[in-house]
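Dear colleague,

Thank you for sharing your sequence with our group. We've completed the structure prediction you requested, and as agreed, I am returning the results in plain text so they can be pasted directly into your records. Please verify that the sequence below matches your submission; if there's any discrepancy, let me know and we will rerun it promptly.
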Amino acid sequence: MLSKSAARAFFLSGTLLFGAVFIWLTVDTFQRIPAQTNADDLTESVARGKKIWEENNCMGCHTLLGEGAYYAPELTRVYERRGPAFITQMLKDPEAVYPGQRKMVKYDFTEEQINDMIAFFEWIGRMDLNGFPPEPTIGLAAAAPIAIPGGERPQIFTQVCVACHSLGGVGGTIGPALDGVGDRFDRGYLMRWITDPQAVKPGTQMPKLGLTDEQRNEVVIFLSKQREGGL
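Please find the predicted structure tokens below.
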């Protein structure tokens, strides 16, 4: 059993020790912030994007870096998940991307404002957040691997097309499933459709995605290989 003086000394030494550890951890954390947040890449465009985010109260619906509302999707890794083409279309006209399904306001942003928002999301997405947000696990155990003709899906297909279309049972349901689409349409038609859907079928719900030539070629080649009997 400790005497009063020994107990006092134990308490004081423990307090000083753990206080020093806490201060050291705090200093170490602040020293790591510039590298983990890519502070050197904080451009004027990123700063303008952050200002747009705050002025339009985007956190009233969305969550970013764990802060905000949970009414709309979490956006910390949205640049990685969806890419600039999808983000651009959502910021231009959310209703055109998800007809009758999304309640996001159409803000009528200028091209420069959209580019600033994309720069902001890209910068946020490259932060080292020690594994946050975690990868989703719901449904992964039950998902069986499905062989898809045409090899690996192009990144732009995974980021943009699956928001509305499904392939192999995976993806959205707003647009038609793309299984066997290579049997129904040739490459020329697919290219015209992806380039400007309204020019092919006026009134269609599919928006003009504004993809680059390289992205369109990737998607068209991939879709042309989606045949019922494989390659």
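Summary note from our side: The chain is about 50% helix and 5% strand.

Kind regards,
the structure core
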